[in-house]
Design goal:
CATH superfamily: Sodium:dicarboxylate symporter
CATH class: Mainly Alpha
Order of helices and strands: HHHHHHHHHHHHHHHHHHHH
Strand content: under 5%
Radius of gyration: 21 Å
Number of domains: 1
Distance between the termini: 23 Å
CATH architecture: Orthogonal Bundle
Helix content: over 70%
Largest sheet: none
Length: about 425
């Protein structure tokens, strides 16, 4: 009998997770058994992400050869990210204004999630100044930053180390070869981790459905549909136009990365496919020096799906409480989100904490977050997927912009559509 491929296994994990969740709806005991399964998978992913990002950046930057080339690449990358995320925020605001997902919703019919941990994190963030975000990019202890999973300090240190190795010339080759071997070993380790992905998906989905069920989604159905409509429009129109502008076959691109996008959607975690996306981008025709810089940086700065979610959710809460948001207030909100959305991956609680701080800055009711918290896993499935698609596409775009796209390699890998792990 032919063994089922990983995508089919993940899909089955998703289906069985929904079934088990529905069967044991409001049975708190089931969480005791399912939650550890999902948590173990996410911990395994987090275990390999930082070492892969660190070693890949060191190898990529060292291979780039000079700070001048890095500066040019960095400028183009950040420029692209800023334009993409700003458009994403505008799309989120547009959908919220047109479809009014929060208008007419009776708050008494809504289930409230526990947001105490997000409030505590947001209050901790508020103690520092806005400049602390920049200061915290420079690590005082790189080992501590790695242990905490803070990617921006890791990226900063790895970039400097890569430049230092490049400047050493021949004497730096032994250290560079070590990081090349280490990077290869980590990518190989990912193949072991992914074997438990179907069980992780089963546990994560099972816990979510058993806690909130399907009935709790109905009052917020309009918000869910509006969010996914915005995600879909952004993917088809914005990503599609960018792909056409840079002569990328977008349908072919999506098909090539479909397994990774399915994994991200199922686990509701952008981290889950980050190693495989980086590996497949190299096979797609992008050089390691660009992939190892663009993808990790994009993980913090190019969060298109999260920006759509933040804009849409902010206006949803305003509509829920009957607060009028004129154009001037929405422009202010856009500017707030353009700042607060950066570095989202380095915050415990992710988008919910950033949404909380954005609500506070915009003067909107913080308690409104409790109504969204219960369905955040559902919304996050789509936004995480858009984030990953955006970063994968950005790598190809920047590669073509830099004139380093390998067309022969791309043609060969698309034909075979098989990547050795």
């Amino acid at each position: 009998m032919k063994k089922l491929g990983l995508p089919i296994q993940i899909l089955l994990g998703l289906i069985f997770g929904v079934i088990v969740g529905l069967v044991f709806y409001k049975h708190p005991g089931v969480e005791t058994y399912l939650k550890p399964v999902g948590d173990i998978f996410l911990r395994l992913i987090k275990m390999v992400v930082v070492p892969i990002v660190f070693s890949s950046i060191v190898v990529g930057i060292a291979g780039m050869g000079s700070a001048k080339k890095l500066g040019k690449l960095g400028f183009r990358t950040i420029l692209y990210f800023e334009v993409a995320t700003t458009i994403a925020i505008v799309i989120g605001l547009f959908f919220a204004n047109v479809f009014q997902p929060g208008a007419g919703v009776d708050m008494k019919t809504l289930a409230q999630g526990d947001i105490s941990k997000y409030v505590a994190t947001e209050q901790e963030m508020e103690k520092g100044s806005h400049l602390d975000f920049i200061v915290n990019i420079v690590p005082s202890n790189i080992v501590d930053s790695m242990a905490q999973g803070h990617l921006l300090p890791v990226i900063f240190f790895a970039t400097l180390l890569g430049l230092a190795i490049a400047a050493m010339g021949e004497s730096g080759k032994p250290l560079l070869n070590f990081f090349k071997s280490f990077s290869s070993a980590m990518f190989h380790m990912v193949s072991y981790v992914l074997k438990v992905a179907p069980f992780g998906v089963f546990g994560l989905i099972g816990v979510t459905i058993s806690k909130f069920g399907v009935a709790s989604l109905i009052p917020l159905g309009k918000l869910i549909v509006t969010a996914y409509g915005a995600y879909l429009l952004f993917a088809i129109v914005c990503f599609g136009l960018v792909a056409k502008l840079f002569k990328i076959n977008f349908i072919q691109f999506i098909k090539f990365f479909k397994d990774e996008f399915l994994l991200v959607f199922s686990t509701s975690s952008a981290e889950s496919a980050l190693p495989q996306v980086m590996k497949k981008l190299e096979s797609y025709g992008c050089p390691k020096s660009i992939v190892s810089f663009v993808v990790p940086v994009g993980y913090s700065f190019n969060t298109d799906g999260s920006c759509i979610y933040l804009a849409l959710s902010s206006l949803f809460i305003a509509q829920l409480y009957g607060i009028d948001m004129p154009l001037s207030a929405q422009i202010t909100l856009l500017l707030i989100l353009a700042i607060t959305s950066k570095g989202i991956s380095g915050v415990a609680g992710g988008a919910l904490v950033v949404l909380l701080s954005s609500l506070a800055a915009a003067g909107l009711p913080l308690e409104g977050l409790a109504f969204i918290a219960g369905i955040d896993f559902i919304l996050n499935m789509g936004r995480a997927c858009i984030n990953v698609i955006g970063n994968a596409l950005a790598s190809v775009v920047i590669t073509k912009w830099e004139g380093q796209f390998d067309h022969e390699k791309n043609k060969a890998c698309v034909v075979s559509d098989k990547i050795a792990v």
